Amino acid sequence: MTDFQTIDLLAILPEIALTALGVLVLVLDVTWRGKIRQQLGVVTAVGLFAIAALTAVFTYPAESQLLYGGMMRHDLLAFVMRLIFLVAAGFTALLSVDVDNLGRRGEYYAVLIAAVIGMNLMAASADLIMLYLALETTSISAYILAGFLFNEERSAEAGMKYFLFGAVTSTVMLFGFSLLFGFAGTTNLYQIGTTIQANSLAITVIAVLVLVGVGFKLAVFPFHFWSPDVYEGAPTPVTAFISTASKAAGFAVLLRVFLIAFDGTNLQSASNWLPLLTSIAVVTTSLGNLVALTQKNIKRLLAYSSIAHAGYALMAFTAIQSAPVQAEAVAAVVYYLVTYVLTNLTAFGVIILVAKNVGSDDVAAFAGLNKRSAGLSLAMLVAFLSLGGIPPLAGFVGKFFIFMALVKANLLWLAIVLAVNSLIALYYYLLVLNVVYNRPVAEGATEIQVSAPYRVALTALCVGVVVFGVIIAPFYDPITRIFDLVK
Amino acid sequence: MIPTSYFIILSAILFTLGAIGVLVRRNAIVIFMAIELMLNAANLAFVAFARQFGAENGQVLVFFVMTVAAAEVAIGLALIVAIFRNKQSINIDDLHELKG
Predict the structure, then answer these.
(1) Measured between CB atoms, does A160 come within 8 Å of chain B?
(2) Total-model pTM
(3) How many domains does chain A have?
(4) B94: nearest CA in chain A?
(5) What's the ipTM?
(6) Which domain holds residue A260?
(7) Strand, helix or coil at A107?
């Protein structure tokens, strides 16, 4: 055992800072009284963005290494993912400021911060013990957030459904972990990767069990049933958070567990589970898009659309079956996550404001939004066109990289599935935009007031969506190294 | 010494029983109990393998799983109380506010 080094502290610097921020928020919650308590959201957001900056500046991993007795891995994947989670949570906190019925604000933000700690550790964990604990930290926090408005029937129901699905799937995954431990004789992901044999039925079975837990986080078929109900019933900022950060955290785990523990870099062992992942990706995307066509509630529509988006990212991951494309496939997944997180947060930001004004989440509530608030309808345009994959917005670039990875990996049929699905998706995104721009304003509708935190958040998000769609290389080039550095 | 395979078979049986319980029962508290059964099946497998390999980390994991299970039950029961206040029922078939 070597001495304690600076790197040991740096590797968990974001989590230390997050813990301090959580304590600060709880203390302010006790000391602040009256109207000023609404500013807790601003404090949380500023804190989260500051921690993101701190993480970006000080914790860039010069070399990949296992720390804390192999519990954690300090590498580029964890670094990039942490930034995604911190930024997504920061925007979520800003978008929560005006939500009236969040009674105990301090607790709400503290639980949000706890969820981010869990996600950060999910991305960094290199051991089954750490991974399970991090997953549960995230999940339990998310159950609380989904059911936070427990006096409202819908929120409590959303929390309950989320909880039941989550508890069962994580238990199945834990059983998979126990068998994995039994096969490898170690709980360290990196040691497991070197001990398991290629081509064995047992590995396939274990991969399926683990995929149940990860699939729940990603909300991919057939573990997606919870997501429309939870998205609809949970407070909308929480929906935004669960559909973006939580999904990205699931992908962080997917990448590390399947590339390292199930040895995905070795094509022979990958053949145990890749066909399964490919079929899940195809079914998830197609099902998500087809069901989204019939949705009348905007939150449910985005729920099914986000199921489809998880399918796209999963498709990109399946391109690892061609050895020269592996690095590009992983980079495509990560870049897609970045674009998707920014875009979806924008969409939910607009929905929060409109739903607060109109009191309904129906698509019809958006009728004539351009006459009620030009800024909001513009944000809606940016978000939905980016979701639909229209250049020069981020969503287009994300899809483009997936398409390129699939074509280079000789998976032309998957690329065609992706293209057809993008067209179907574009149709229902444009239907929503049609309501926003071409329908007459409802009787008695007023102009929608956008308060400062929301204006800042939506402007920053829209700028982000455009920047990631135009300036690509400075972001894409570093993440192509994730694959080499994760090994 | 009892062979490890006996423990794993028992663990698989317990896990299956728990899974069946989750699928067929409708009372939220009974579903919780079934989930606990599944968790303990995984715990049993961990301990059995840990004994076989002489590796402590499998046993340590079990303590963490118990802690997590306790936290999960706390949240679950809180949600059940919230649901019961709204609906006077904890039958999960009565949870149908949200659908589309």
Answers:
(1) yes
(2) 0.94
(3) 2
(4) A157
(5) 0.95
(6) 1-265
(7) helix
